[in-house]
## 1
Amino acid sequence: MTIPISYYLILSAIVFFTGVMGVLIRRNIIAILLSVELMLNATNINFVAFSHHLQDLGGQVFVFFALTVAAAEVAVGLAIIIALHRSRSTINVEEFNLLKW
Amino acid sequence: MSQLFFGYFAGMIAITSILVVALRNPVYSALSLLVMFFHVAGLFITLHAEFLAAVQIIVYAGAILVLYLFVVMILNVTQDDRYHSQWLIAGVVCIPLFIESILLLSGGAGALNTGSPSLQSEPHEAITANNTLAIGKTLFSTYLFPFEVASLVLLVAMIGAIVIAKRDIGEHDA
């Protein structure tokens, strides 16, 4: 018994929209970055499901690259958070309004 | 049997991903994200992507999440984290997109399942029992240039993180 590809797509959609909700409604900047990780993982699930479905390894290789970019994003993002916390001593995103219109 | 595994992993992934957003303490959010990473790795194993499952656990659970916990604890986040006042925007963005994707999937699922054999015109390097060997061959032949670019991305991120997070030299005296 094999699982239809649409099940994986629905699971990935649920995880992705949970991540979008998290980015939009959380105030803690670390929680926002964690929600970005949720979205990246949703795309990874999609890539691997299609790689299995089409019997093509390209999808798994792209998950590898997505992992690389996620690691780079986390390193730079957390460095920015530390620099922000040093200068403003808060991590609430509503306090950061210097570039707001 | 595979449906049982898929049901368990999918249910746990959905529940823990909602918990990541719903829990207020960032440490608990990070820990439920850890549980989610392990279940995504399990899902990869059921999809015969054993190498990626190992990489998922080592890189995500081992490196990225430890970095998150490190920063959460170095910043000592104790203040009460309330939700944003953007519920309306979030609802307007998410609910139509979600309904849209469900409609697309329910309408296109039959076509997707039946039309797939025509797509696999030439199985690239058919996913064999030796998953790591096949990924290595693909990575170092077809995707050699993106692989080198990925190493450059990592180098730039490493230097950038050090430069951004470094305390300025003269700042300590002032």
Note: Residues 62 and 87 of chain A are 37 Å apart (CA to CA).
## 2
Amino acid sequence: MIENSFNRRDFLKVLGWGGATVALSGCGNTSVEDGREYVTSYVETADYIIPSIGTYFNSTCAQCDAGCGIMGRVREGRVLKLEGNPDSPINSGKMCGLGQAGVQAHYNPDRVREPLLRNGDKGEAITWEKALQLVSEKVASANPGSVAFLTGGVSGHVKVLLKNYLDAIGSDQHYVYEAVAPSVVRAANKKAYGVEMPRLRLDRAKVVVSFGADFLGTWVSPVHFSRQYAKFRKGVNGERGVLVQVESKMTITGANADRWLAIRPGTEGILALGLVNALSAAGLTVPAEVAAAVKDYTLDRVSNDTGVSVEHIGKLTALLKDRSPSLVIAGGAAEGYAHGSQNAAAVALLNQVLGNVGKTVEAPASMPFPQMAPITGNRSSLQALNDSIAQDGVKVLFNCGANPIYSAPASMNMKESLKKVPFKVAFAHYMDETAMEADLVLPLNSSMEGWGTVVPEYFAEGAQLNIQQPLMEKLHPGTLGMGDVLLALLKQRRPAEYSGYEDYYAYLKNAMVAIKGALGGENEDDDVFWDSVLSQGVVKLTSSSNALVSSASAAGLQLPPPAVEDGTYPLRLIPAVTPNMRDGRHANEPWLQESPDPLTTIVWDSWVEMHPKTAAKLGVVEGDIVEVASKNGAIKGQVYVYSGIHPDVISVPLGYGHEAMGRYSKGVGANAFKILDPVFDQQTGELAMYETRVKVTKAGKRVIVVKDEGPAGGNQSGRRIALRMASGKVNLAEEV
Amino acid sequence: MGKDIREDIAWAQINKDVLKSLENPKKLYWVILLIAIAMVGVAVGCEIYQYQTGMGVSNKSNSHVWSLYIATFIFWIGMSHSGTLLSAILHLMHADWRKPIYRFAEAMTTFSLMTAGLFVLVHLGRLWMVYYVMPYPNERWVWPNFQSPLVWDMFAIATYLSSSVIFLYVGMIPDLAICRDNIHAGWRKKLYTVLSLGWEGTDRQWRNFRITYLTIACFLIPLAVSVHSIVASDFAMSNMPGWHVTSFPPYFVAGALYSGCAAIITLFVILRYVFKFEEYMTLPIMRKLVRLTFAIAMVWTYLNLIEFSSVWYGHDQTAKDQLIFKATGPYAPYFWAMIFFGSILPLLLAFKRFQTHLPLLFVVSIFLNVGMWLERWMIIGPSFAHGHYPWTWDHDQWPSLVQWGIVFGSFGWFTLLFMVFCKVFPSVSMYEVKEMVYHRTLALKNKPAVKGEH
Amino acid sequence: MSITNLLQNWSDFRQQHPSDERPHQEYKWAMSIDLDLCTGCNACSVACYAENNLPAVGKEKFSHGHSHHWLRIERYWHNEDREYADQGAQFLPMMCQQCEAAPCETVCPVGATNHTADGLNSQVYNRCVGSRYCNANCPYKARYFNWYDYPTTADVWPAPMEQQLNPDVTVRGKGVMEKCTFCVQRLTVAKSNARTEGRSVHDGEVQTACQQACPTGAISFGNLIDPESRVAKQWEKQQVKLNHDKQAKDAVHDGDKLRGYRILENLRTYPSVMYLEQLREGAI
Ligand SMILES: Nc1nc2c(c(=O)[nH]1)N[C@H]1C(S)=C(S)[C@@H](COP(=O)(O)OP(=O)(O)OC[C@H]3O[C@@H](n4cnc5c(=O)[nH]c(N)nc54)[C@H](O)[C@@H]3O)O[C@H]1N2
Ligand SMILES: Nc1nc2c(c(=O)[nH]1)N[C@H]1C(S)=C(S)[C@@H](COP(=O)(O)OP(=O)(O)OC[C@H]3O[C@@H](n4cnc5c(=O)[nH]c(N)nc54)[C@H](O)[C@@H]3O)O[C@H]1N2
Ligand code: SF4
Ligand code: SF4
Ligand code: SF4
Ligand code: SF4
Ligand code: SF4
């Protein structure tokens, strides 16, 4: 595919802020009236600032962990729009909607603007000096081991400082929690391939079979996978790649599949083994041990167990056999069960049997600076924190980038649990549910105001280090960067080591210059090196690849038969991760609320999605308010009926139903995290997200579902609008 | 059939009877006037709210951008046609029976137009910029888009309104002189003196008067036909299924005449009752009016059938879908009500005994107009809900109370204008009734054996 | 001011019709959208919000059909009577098609929407009186009306959110119509830069915001006059001619080897957006 290379940089150099005091007179931010000294007049501004012409600064998207490179368009001191950095191998100039909404996180009217100290039910504004003093006292008075950090996924120099701080106070309690993360798949991959997340080459695959991995919408690095998907669809020599998606509730990836196979929930592994068996029967060379292990997975049995027709299993087998290399991926849907690890292992086995390892499953680059490599979060880490609190092991808790009160299942009782911690500090952008419970709230800079380095979780090519730099001056004088706070805390403990750094910027520059050799700048002057790093936004690191294991083995595979129906709670709940909301941390950005959900086109609310058959059985139609009750609680929602879901399941999107956070998110929809059953993956102890069983009952009135789709309901009514044809009729190689 | 008017009414009696209608309004008059003012108040309140807040309060949507305002606009434009029909067309055709009733019909024309015009303003998203629609010399050399039917609309309505006012006024001059001569004090005297332009009833004045009146009548007829054809073009010239219909102009004109005639019947009954105009607004005249109305109703029905069948047998599937949608979708009750009120109910008018049954005619005529209003609503509502593009179809765009308030108020506005007119100007043409009486006596003298009409 | 000027002014409204003798001189902006690549992710739509100062109107107003997505992603199903939508959905980005014979233009009483020399359907906010006739006549329903005064509406751009607004794009007040402009502010900058350097805008030099965001590269945009532009090549290859309302290839039996088509072409709007049909594999 030919790409329009974006050449704005030819005439507008992409820049990096050269100094720590970024001072530009923006509209309303910096003015003499504010009592600020360093207004820069346009008479004497930097030579790259031309009034009315945008300037681009490279940075890194902080909306999810994929770490896409971005270019912020800045004019008259304000960041206006985020565009993808064409030089970032992850997203090569592209961005997702969530990423675009980053500016709304930055300009959000509900941001916390100054440190708040709890006074009864209220937060009282205090100065940073006082806040840091208080932290110092509390930490000093606590037993060193009883100071804990709860964070979301972290990487880069902040991670280094965090580690140093914990070392400095003598604690090893760092918990990393992500409510939605492919933890089980990572563990299963580690076993199967020897690495947690191999590099997936969709662009090389002729067939992709995804067991519920929503790689186009929400999974791991969606923009990167979308780029790959485009290449995969165009195919090698015009042979268009075929996508088959196996899942119980359609994701946007499923909606793009050539065949979407609705599978009985939890039987993904059975289908994978069935395919191994069928492939072996069809003549594919399969290790004897594997063939023996799967011989019971006959076509009929597999079809019976999974609900996938014999015809489709047959066709899929033929497809996989004929078109190699293929790629089989296990994602959220497959891993979300008590036997999630088994499912994922079965899927990995299928990949290995197909001989994809080494072809479409590659070894990922390894991070040469492990201290900066990302720590990925999961739920069991939160459980560990909970246990520690229960044993009185936490006296001071710092929380940054995690909102467990909102996103942990009700069964974990996080709110009560956190109450037992005498002093809780929340680093916050918004007063979210967890910040509301804190004793001290420390307002953070937005990702467009602060300095940082980010190491993406998933490397598209080689290892890389992303730069985060301010795209404009701070909106609120009372906020600080996480790095700055950690540095200040470190100065309290290890003044000798850190007092040389005026601020985090100084530390960062110093740290980066110190490793400039490894960053490809060994012969450069420090400042030249630093400037080029800032203007590139992405530093490519020389790294080696991890080794991949590629021996297929069925040892230890134990797949349970399909679950039997629970009489009281007859349906399964799929808590859906949607491209707009993900885990709900960005719910307060109105573009995301107003951006219609791709599948249902619903806006500004959550919904209860079900198959027409299920709806008929329950006697409900679109718009009926129903109660979805599990053993752990109940939520209400509007019914949306469509045939992209298995009749045995219903689905409610995650991310809605905030009780705090801000005007755009509070009270919008219902929080599905709250009713999840505490069922765990047997091998990793991760929450089995898809194991919750629910009953659905009508709860009164009917509403008009607010959505973009009109009453025609996705039917073109005979008009020739969105057309489709059989791929065999087209020669893509001939197309431009 | 009885005679249209008694031949033995004294001319002085005519003056007396008609001038009496200008005198001391009864209490009921004031009550109704106040109600009308209150209705206008509601509309003004709604409009101020809409102006301040934005068109959104009317509850239209991006796929359904027009609604009651335009429907009611067409309704009032339609209403205006009967006055012209009675005064101009029938005048040229020497249909004498029009004489006692054309004056108020013409007043109706003028006031309906004045009401219709307001809807154009109310409908605009930026009312304050309405003058952009007019071609006026400006520094930027910017002109309106002469291709747009809305610009033709602006011209047509403005011309029609001004011509109607002139026609009404010119036709009233001899009567205004009678008023001047019979009323001796107060503001009325001054008003009539000024307005009657020194009418003395000299031969020369009558000659000039007749030529002027005839000329304006001739001018007005094509105008009346064109104005509603142009309103029809707003729709016919667009590409919206359900609108893009060649037969719309005659269809609109027929509908206009239809609703106008029905309104004349309503007002006929009211004026005859209130002003005790039994001698002038006689039952034989009513019978003729009713027959005319019936004929127009059938023409309208015929044109409806033409439209439906041309859509049905045509190749435009989209338009056909649209028609099916109208007849079976959420708008079906209104659609069928329109058919019932517009085509079935008027069948009653074919029966002789109902043709002079005033209470029944009063009720029926109002329902005919309900039907005609529904016709306009059926052009707007369902078409927007089911156009070319299925993704944006909508069924739930029910007009808000703001819209209803303004539509409701427009009836108050019309009533207000009409009631004030009735008390300030003679609502029956005295000089023409005299002519009619005179013609009749002449006819009786010349042909004593002939019965019935002159 | 004269009658000549009046007539000149009037005829200027329609001078760019493709069948006129005066074709586009230097630029004819056009798009092509590959529906086989569009995943329905909405990135383009959000980018358009960011670039063009579109208000997020909130649930209540959205429910009344007052949304402002100049670029909406439509989602169609092809699963009539089947148990599952098992061939997925079909996503279709729909924005103003920049019709060459735009039905919206002819009906606007004040000429607030008309054709530019670059073949764009322009929208002049200051001139618009808000009659909404253009929307009534747009077959694609791609026009969005300012039902409220969003700049002063609570929670649309509460401080400091207004600082995100793009100064190159007017913030529209109540009562005016708006729609996708093909990011005309970007085109203007590109043209101006090119003019300064005495050349034409070359392919890829300017991107629309939606095109720029689209992760799969489903949207291409460029100058149809420039035979070297990707868009021109795509149109050429797909045998879609701008000034035809029936494409010759559709008459040929073999025509279905080409995916290019324009929506509601039969209405003779001559859209500037060509879509490429979605594909589905028969082997599964
Ligand atoms: N080529 C060309 N020439 C023109 C015009 C045109 O359109 N094109 N327009 C004409 C018109 S209408 C005008 S008004 C004039 C304007 O002519 P100038 O007054 O020269 O206007 P600018 O070039 O906009 O601004 C002048 C300088 O003021 C600086 N400046 C900005 N803010 C401040 C501040 O707070 N304090 C101080 N001290 N300096 C500040 C800017 O950086 C800039 O260098 O130009 C006229 N000349
Ligand atoms: N971003 C930014 N905005 C600014 C300024 C800035 O420096 N930066 N400067 C501000 C200042 S100081 C000013 S004065 C304004 C100027 O703002 P505008 O008055 O909008 O200035 P122009 O764009 O120069 O001219 C307007 C139009 O007049 C047309 N025109 C030229 N000659 C004639 C003529 O003889 N007759 C007619 N009818 N039209 C003609 C031109 O083609 C142009 O389309 O902009 C203000 N806005
Ligand atoms: S995928 Fe994640 S990092 Fe990339 S643009 Fe989207 S939100 Fe930002
Ligand atoms: S798509 Fe609609 S708004 Fe755009 S040019 Fe065509 S008719 Fe006009
Ligand atoms: S809404 Fe504006 S642009 Fe559209 S027709 Fe009316 S005046 Fe013209
Ligand atoms: S071209 Fe620009 S204005 Fe049009 S839809 Fe794309 S981003 Fe929006
Ligand atoms: S960004 Fe691209 S893939 Fe996503 S919806 Fe828009 S056109 Fe489709």
Note: Chain A has 24 helices and 27 strands.
